[in-house]
Every structure is written in structure tokens, then in C-alpha cells.
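ok, trying the design again with the full structure, not the truncated one.
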């Protein structure tokens, strides 16, 4: 792995700095995506826009089987590349969220109740920009080994569009993969990094309870389903806290509890829905059995019959140490060592984890908060926006990583 370098020296040694004309083009491209968001597996316009720009650069992108998303190789066909040369993949997610855009900007979403409220438009533009710079380097014979661009649909759709992309063969021949995710807590010009788990596993849990209802005057003759539902809501998380290693961070949080229609009638049906999150990969694999057992036991104590629908989501994103080191060295080379900060593990889910189940890689948090702005913002909110200088930072990060990664064999 390349050793850490000071930025002023490395900037002159690493080709691929973003030309000013391309900088403006990428900002316009991102704004166009932002104005025309598309939900998972419906990203037809986004796919067409990416395909057109890549083909204009002389590349040959391939649309994924579902009709949305692309994969595009750079330098794979060149005679100067020896067989068996390592392939580095750069991944972007291209879908939006079913959230209204509440910003008052010229590039506000034109689609009702839909917005790029998680920064996927930025991720997409960064990988596109890096691809265009690397394609130019490949034409000049300066790219040390092939790079694959992956524009993946449906990241926001459980269990994630990454699985469909993998089935399409996007990882064939790839031995390392990198990604970024916008982070409004990190200042623009910086990235957040962590070796090991950087996100949480996230599954979906739905529980249906049933029992003999009746009059609230005679609960002893019924299955008191409201009490049963309340106990499942409070006791299941407590039971799990004693059956899983506390360090694993296994937790159930409920987002919906529905039961009953009248104040003097004990209902016969109740529904709970929530998420199961876990910081540890091994415990996540055990989580369905643990959750099923806890729900059945608590419901059974109250004579309620339980039916459980446990939907697998995504495992944690576990950053490989060498790949995280590559991102650190790349950012240091471009922006200096103070442009990299440590980041904590998030409880959010991210389907980039499915790639890391198969090949080593790492995800960095891309700073998008304007310098000096102390406003607290979060992802998945209608007012989410970014400082667009982050696009150039992301392109520099990926191009530098591709150049430094060429030192390995």
C-alpha cells in the first residue's frame, strides 16, 4: 500500500486534476439529475443521460438487465494492459427517494413528492466525472490498470439493487471496489473514514398478533391484545439486549403500532412494524432466529398468536483496511492529511455492503457541508442539499485512488 504523502508534492505527481470546463459540466449534470429524480428500478432517464455522456467520451457502457443502471470499463481493452492486471471498481447509486423537495433553488425537483434527498445525484456525478478523467488518462497511456464504473439502481429498495447488479456480473474480474456517501456533518473538502464497520445492518420487521377479543369489562375472558402488543413493543427489545452480545448493537425500533377501534372493545388483531439494526456482521446473521424467538415468547405469555414477517435488508458496510488506506492516501495526496477525519459507525443501512461480501473495498463519507455553516442537516429530508464543490473533491479522490492503486499487483 502506498505510504502517506504531503499534498503539495503529490498534486504535481498525480495526473487527473479536474479541468475547469468539466467542473462546470458536472455541476450542470448533477443539477439536471436533481431536477428529474427517479425511484429505484425506474431510473430510465438517468441511465440514458449517463449512457450518452459516456459514449460521447468514446466509452462503451452496458445497461444492466433490468433496463436501468450501467457498467462501463475503462482501459480493459487496451493492448498496454497485461492480462490479469487488477481491476478497481467505482460504484455510484442512482435512485432517488419518495420525499417532497422543499428547497427554494433553481434546480429544485420537478417531480412531485420525489427528490434526491440522500445525495445519490452527487455520487453518480462523482463517478461519472472520475470516469471521464480516467478515460482521458487511459487514452494517453497513463492509467496503470483497468477501472470499472458501476452505476447501480435501487439502493433504497430492500434488499438493495446491488444484488441485482452483482447478478448481472458487475463484479466479474473486480478485486477492489470503492464508493462515497454524502455526509452533511462533514465539511466540504474533507472525507470521513473508518476501518471496519462504517454502517449498520438494517432489516424490516412486521408482526401480526391475533386473539379472542371481547368487552373491556371482562379482559380475563379474552386475549388482551392491546396489552400483548404493548408488551411485544417494549419487552422484545429488552429480551434481545440480553440474548445478543451488547457490543453487537442489535436493536429493534418500532415505527408503527396499530390496533383497536373502540374504547370499550378489546380487539382481535394488532400490527407492529419496525426495523432491526445491528452493528456486527455475525450477530446480524443470527438476528432472524433471535427476533422470532423473542416475539413468540412475549406474545405467548399473553396468549396472543404471532405471525412474523422478517425481511432481510442489508449487512453492515465493513471497510477493508487496505482499501480504506488507499482512500486515505488518495485524499491526503490531493488535499493534505487534514482533509481526512475519523468517522463514527452509522446506524443507517447501505447496500454497498453486498459488494463487500464478495470483494474487499471501502466507502468514504464525502463532506458536503459548506465551510463555516453550522446548520444541522440530515439525509432523507426534503431540504437536503450539498455544497457542489464536493463533486470536484469526489472526482479527485477517485482519480487519485485509481492512480495510486496501480502500484499493486
Amino acid at each position: 500500500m502506498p505510504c502517506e504523502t504531503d499534498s503539495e508534492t503529490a498534486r504535481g505527481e498525480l495526473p487527473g486534476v479536474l479541468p475547469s470546463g468539466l467542473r462546470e459540466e458536472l455541476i450542470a449534470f448533477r443539477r439536471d439529475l436533481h431536477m428529474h429524480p427517479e425511484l429505484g428500478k425506474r431510473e430510465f432517464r438517468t441511465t440514458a443521460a449517463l449512457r450518452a455522456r459516456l459514449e460521447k467520451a468514446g466509452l462503451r457502457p452496458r445497461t444492466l438487465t433490468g433496463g436501468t443502471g450501467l457498467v462501463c470499463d475503462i482501459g480493459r481493452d487496451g493492448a498496454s494492459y497485461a492480462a490479469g492486471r487488477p481491476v478497481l471498481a467505482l460504484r455510484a447509486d442512482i435512485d432517488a427517494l419518495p420525499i417532497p423537495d422543499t428547497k427554494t433553488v433553481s434546480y429544485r425537483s420537478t417531480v412531485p413528492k420525489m427528490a434526491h434527498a440522500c445525495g445519490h445525484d452527487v455520487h453518480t456525478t462523482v463517478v461519472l466525472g472520475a470516469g471521464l478523467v480516467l478515460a482521458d488518462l487511459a487514452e494517453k497511456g497513463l492509467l496503470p490498470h483497468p477501472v470499472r464504473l458501476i452505476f447501480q439502481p435501487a439502493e433504497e429498495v430492500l434488499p438493495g439493487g446491488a444484488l441485482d447488479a452483482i447478478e448481472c456480473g458487475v463484479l466479474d474480474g473486480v478485486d477492489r471496489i470503492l464508493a462515497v456517501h454524502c455526509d452533511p456533518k462533514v465539511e466540504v473538502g474533507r472525507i470521513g473514514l473508518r476501518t471496519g464497520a462504517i454502517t449498520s445492518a438494517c432489516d424490516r420487521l412486521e408482526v401480526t398478533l391475533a386473539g379472542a377479543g371481547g368487552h373491556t369489562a371482562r379482559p380475563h375472558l379474552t386475549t388482551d391484545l392491546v396489552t400483548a402488543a404493548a408488551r411485544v413493543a417494549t419487552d422484545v427489545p429488552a429480551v434481545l439486549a440480553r440474548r445478543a452480545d451488547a457490543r453487537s448493537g442489535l436493536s429493534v425500533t418500532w415505527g408503527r403500532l396499530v390496533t383497536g377501534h373502540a374504547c370499550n372493545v378489546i380487539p382481535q388483531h394488532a400490527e407492529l412494524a419496525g426495523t432491526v439494526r445491528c452493528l456486527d456482521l455475525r450477530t446480524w446473521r443470527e438476528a432472524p432466529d433471535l427476533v422470532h424467538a423473542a416475539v413468540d415468547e412475549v406474545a405467548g405469555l399473553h396468549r396472543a398468536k404471532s405471525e412474523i414477517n422478517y425481511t432481510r435488508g442489508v449487512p453492515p458496510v465493513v471497510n477493508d483496511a487496505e482499501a480504506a488506506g488507499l482512500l486515505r492516501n488518495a485524499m491526503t495526496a490531493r488535499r493534505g492529511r487534514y482533509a481526512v477525519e475519523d468517522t463514527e459507525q452509522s446506524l443507517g443501512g447501505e447496500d454497498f455492503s453486498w459488494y463487500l461480501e464478495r470483494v474487499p473495498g471501502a466507502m468514504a463519507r464525502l463532506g458536503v457541508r459548506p465551510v463555516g455553516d453550522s446548520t444541522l442537516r440530515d439525509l432523507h429530508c426534503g431540504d437536503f442539499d450539498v455544497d457542489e464543490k464536493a463533486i470536484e473533491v469526489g472526482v479527485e479522490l477517485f482519480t487519485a485512488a485509481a492512480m495510486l492503486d496501480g502500484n499493486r499487483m
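Keeping the full-length input from now on. The domain at 7-198+317-405 is CATH 3.40.630.10 (Aminopeptidase).
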